[in-house]
Amino acid sequence: MESTNTFENNSNIIWSKGEITYEERCKHMKQKGLVIWFTGLSGSGKSTIAIKAENELIKQGKVVYRLDGDNLRYGLNSDLGFTQDDREENIRRISEVSALFKDAGIITLVSSISPYRKMREFARKKCGKDDFIEVYVKADIKTCIDRDPKGLYRKVIDGEIKNFTGISSPYEEPHNPELVLNTSKMTIEESVKEVLYLITNKM
Q1: What is the dihedral of CA 43, 48, 49, 54, to 10 degrees?
Q2: Count of beta carbons in the 10 Å neighbourhood of residue 84
Q3: No. of H helices and E strands in the chain?
Q4: For residue range 95-110, what is the model confidence (pLDDT) as tens digits?
Q5: CA–CA distance, 86 with 141 (Å, rounded to integer)
Q6: Cβ distance 135 to 195 under 8 Å?
Q7: Strand partners, 110
Q8: Going edge to edge, which strands form the sheet with 107-111?
Q9: DSSP 3-state of 59
Q10: Which sequence spans correspond to the domains of the chain?
Q11: For residue range 137-160, what is the model confidence (pLDDT) as tens digits?
Q12: What is the rounded distance in angstroms from the CA atom of residue 96 to the CA atom of residue 166?
């Protein structure tokens, strides 16, 4: 992936280091910063599980925020399309934002298809492997088409959408995710319970 960061090699850009450490922020927040990265096909249940998990974590008194891939395309990533380069840049930006949220001591729930392994590994490295949980929300393509919550698969079938992940664009399944949620067989409640258990053990 070619970097779009025009400041990357500018020696005049210097990181501004504050006086408060990550550990001090975590102590103040009474929690550890974590990034839970939900990946999977459209319609697999990523956003639904993240929404329910966020609600439960808030009830527990945790500081949590949800970064949804579609929501970010309304603003931060509104200039990006769906070519491979644009998809990679999309995940690069989400990774950078997630790392900042984690550094603030926030439990960050990312729901994004993120089809390429190398970019999910980029996210893990950027956020820190000890504070990163990859959750593969697994559902076969037939189940996703049957659900079609956003009506996207219908548009693909009708020829209105090109480069659609899982059909005309590849999705690379995770090799070693921390958690696999097979939503073709599991309920949303069961899936959320698994996510919360994993987060609790990470805290």
Answers
A1: 150
A2: 13
A3: 8, 5
A4: 999 999 999 999 999 9
A5: 23
A6: yes
A7: 37, 67
A8: 64-68, 107-111, 34-39, 132-138, 179-182
A9: helix
A10: 22-202
A11: 998 888 888 888 788 877 877 778
A12: 26
At 124, the amino acid letter reads R
**What span, in angstroms and rounded, lies between the C-alpha atoms of 104 and 126?**
14
User: Is 114 one of the catalytic residues?
Assistant: yes
CATH of 22-202, one of 3.40.50.300, 3.10.450.50, 3.30.360.10, 3.40.50.720: 3.40.50.300
Q: How far is it between the farthest Cα atoms of the chain?
A: 56
Q: Token digits for 173?
A: 């399944």
Q: Are 160 and 102 in contact (CB under 8 A)?
A: no
Which of the following is catalytic: 44, 95, 112, 114?
Answer: 114
Closest CA to 65 of 39, 42, 36: 36
Q: Is the pLDDT of residue 6 over 70?
A: no
Q: What is the mean pLDDT of residues 68-87?
A: 90
Q: Report residue 8's pLDDT band, with 50, 70 and 90 as the boundaries.
A: low
- Type of residue found at 5: N
**Residue of 183, 171, 157 lying closest to 47 (CA atoms):** 183
